[in-house]
Amino acid sequence: MSETTPTTPQTTLERVRALPKVSLHDHLDGGLRPATIVEIASANGHRLPTSDPEELRAWFRDAADSGTLVRYLETFDHTIAVMQDAESLARVATEAVLDLAADGVVYGELRYAPEQHLQGGLSLDEVVEAVEEGMRRGEQQAAAAGTPIRVGTLVTAMRHADRGLEIAELALRHRDAGVVGFDIAGAEIGFAPSDHLAAFDRLHAENFPVTIHAGEAFGLPSIADALHPCGAERIGHGVRIVEDVSVHEGHDEHGLPNATLGRLATWVRDRGIVLELCPSSNVQTGAATSVAEHPITLLKDLGFSISVNTDNRLMSGTSLSREFALLVEEAGWNLADVERATITALSGSFLPFPDRVALASAVIRPAFA
């Protein structure tokens, strides 16, 4: 396939949608279909800003465009409210898998915090079981529709709560039933990853993969804390690693942007720590000014291991194809950049190594050839 940039945003989007993609950072409670929210809320009595699905879609996008992470997170009050029983959890999971598959995602990792779905009387294990049931159903339906996808789940602990070790044990109990990793999420400022050190120690002792939200609302200390005491294998967002990069005029002898990297940035780049970057979401929360100026392009050019992600498809009104299309149209990316980011995401995924190799050789690389 030629690297020539298509002439219109729509053709760019269509072209990218046809390519196989890998999604590492997608919140289950951030990607619901508006019609599903309306239907479940009507049944369980939860009051929404509007009962019209399209108006609700616009409300989520507008509310998330506040420019602050705290306001952005408030939109989840409505999505979480309709994910409080097993049937609803399974339905949301199935629809999320189908939506990713329809967008060309061939492997995805969906994350959610089981502790947020207990209001209807479910236990933590029942929450996980319902989500996994929905995930497997989604995979089966996607395969039947001719858009095969494989999905793993990341069980997440809320960083402001004191349940990290309990949620880590939950993840371990379900590691052979679809749970592929552990994460912490939520308000970043004032809640260091190392507050949950006992959880990370337990997971490392059991050889279980870990990614950690860091470097979005808080800067370098958050990233360093996630990497060193906590042993994160990937960083959720990590966009503020750019604060440890000083850019100068011109390019070096290798053709890379002329820049000086601090010790933390050097560590992240040289060890291939995959950054789960989410351009549109970062613009909404104020971590970046625009997709065109998002640090993802600089980090890519400097040799960092970057992946492209959606974060919350509903709140950002986006898809993985749209994120790549925006980078092509606004930041000058080409299809080689899209392929590189896709292979990087696959390499950094928590999928077993032989499966990664097979997916890269049989599905991803042939599509870009």
Automatic annotation (TrEMBL):
Q: Which residues form the active site?
A: E216
For the ligand (substrate), the binding residues are H27, D29, G186
Spans through the membrane: none
**Which Pfam families does the entry mention?**
A_deaminase
Q: Which UniProt keywords apply?
A: Hydrolase, Metal-binding, Nucleotide metabolism, Zinc
Q: Write down the top EC class of this protein.
A: hydrolase
This entry's comment on the bound cofactor is: Binds 1 zinc ion per subunit.
- Report which reactions are catalysed by this protein: 2'-deoxyadenosine + H2O + H(+) = 2'-deoxyinosine + NH4(+); adenosine + H2O + H(+) = inosine + NH4(+)
- Lineage top rank: taxon: Bacteria
Residues flagged as site, Important for catalytic activity? H237
Q: Adenosine deaminase domain: from which residue to which, for each copy? A: 20-364
Per the UniProt entry, the Enzyme Commission number(s) are: 3.5.4.4
Detail which positions bind Zn(2+). Answer: H25, H27, H213, D311
Single GO molecular function: hydrolase activity
Query: Which co-factor is required?
Result: Zn(2+)
Indicate the family of this protein: Belongs to the metallo-dependent hydrolases superfamily. Adenosine and AMP deaminases family. Adenosine deaminase subfamily.
| HAMAP family in the cross-refs | A_deaminase
| Function in brief | Catalyzes the hydrolytic deamination of adenosine and 2-deoxyadenosine.
Q: Which protein is depicted?
A: Adenosine deaminase
